[in-house]
Each structure stands twice: as structure tokens, then as C-alpha cells.
Design goal:
Number of helices: 8
Order of helices and strands: EHEHHHEHEHHEH
Radius of gyration: 16 Å
Structural class: alpha/beta
CATH topology: Rossmann fold
Helix content: 40-55%
CATH architecture: 3-Layer(aba) Sandwich
Shape: globular
Oligomer: single chain
Strand order of the largest sheet: 2-3-1-4-5
């Protein structure tokens, strides 16, 4: 009799830039003891340059190719359990949305536009916000990506007004239920 593949018990954080993926990921790492993987950092290591330089030199399309390649590597069947923090646009490709689901419990972290603006205003390493009107750009990208975040996520959490511990605790409770309910 064939046994089904064991379920990956990764927690995958998706959402727009500035929604708390890194902060919440580090809190979950501390609470669970799982290593945390930041997909953008993996891409930077592989490319030998920062994300904004990849965008400048090769464009967004090439960056998305690198994202997909890293996701494929993370789905290896012998990989350890991890907390995985993704870039905000990773959901723009259908293939990536499928791979994210294969990785484990997907949590969509959300925040209002004003909070995103405040959290990202001083960071010049956000290539998609290097524009005259970052608010307009954020709103347009959120309009485009929201259906993809909804399609991909098992859980959506508004991080605004909550501390990292509250958010992480809620995610862990939901993840335990999610994994316990799987056959």
C-alpha cells in the first residue's frame, strides 16, 4: 500500500511589502525553533546582488524567474520544517501560487495603505516604490495582487494595531488546526 507524502509543516508568509512578514517570521522562528528563510535574501545570495540591483539590471521579469527557481528548491521533499517569508509580488505567477501551497500553511499578512506607506517610506531598497507617487503605486499593486493573495492563503491576518507576539500566536493556533485537520 502506498503512503501519501508527509505534509510539509512549513509556515509560509505572504503579503505586500511592509505588512510584517519579516517581523512575524522572526517571532514564529523564536516560538517554534524552526529556521527562517527569506526568499528575497536567497535570491540576493544566488544573484550576488541586492533585489533593487536585480530589478535595475535585469527587470522584474528576471527577478520573478529567480523567485520561481528558489520556490522549486524549497519544495524538496527532504527539506526541514521552516518559516518562509516571501516577497510581496511572489503571488503574481500562477506557478508560484501552486508552489506556495505545496510548501505548507500559507498566511497572508495585511495592513492598510497608510501603514504600508509609513513602514516603507524610509527604505530606498523597494524598487517598485521608487516613483513620484508611492501611495498610488501601492494602491494599484494591492488592487492587482489581492485576488492572488486570497487564492493562495489558508489564513488572512490584518497586522495593523497588533504586536508581533499576538499575530504569531494566532498564526500558530491556526496552523496547528490546519495540520491536524489534514488526513
Amino acid at each position: 500500500m502506498l503512503h501519501p507524502e508527509p505534509l510539509p509543516k512549513n509556515i509560509v508568509l505572504i503579503g505586500f511589502m511592509g505588512c510584517g512578514k519579516t517581523t512575524i517570521g522572526k517571532k514564529l522562528q523564536h516560538m517554534l525553533g524552526y529556521p527562517m528563510i527569506d526568499i528575497d535574501h536567497l535570491i540576493e545570495e544566488k544573484a550576488g546582488m541586492p533585489v533593487n540591483a536585480i530589478f535595475s539590471a535585469f527587470g522584474e521579469s528576471q527577478f520573478r524567474e529567480l523567485e520561481t527557481a528558489v520556490l522549486h528548491e524549497l519544495t524538496a521533499p527532504d527539506a526541514p520544517r521552516r518559516i518562509i517569508s516571501t516577497g510581496g509580488g511572489i503571488v503574481s505567477r500562477r506557478q508560484n501560487r501552486r508552489l506556495l501551497h505545496q510548501l505548507g500553511f500559507v498566511v497572508w499578512l495585511q495592513a492598510p495603505v497608510d501603514a504600508i506607506l509609513e513602514r516603507t517610506a524610509r527604505n530606498k531598497d523597494r524598487p517598485l516604490l521608487q516613483t513620484e507617487n508611492p501611495r498610488q503605486r501601492i494602491e494599484a499593486l494591492l488592487d492587482l495582487r489581492t485576488p492572488w493573495y486570497q487564492e493562495t492563503a489558508h489564513l488572512a491576518v490584518d497586522t495593523y494595531g497588533l504586536d508581533a507576539e499576538e499575530v504569531a500566536t494566532g498564526i500558530l493556533e491556526s496552523a496547528r488546526y490546519h495540520f491536524a485537520a489534514k488526513p
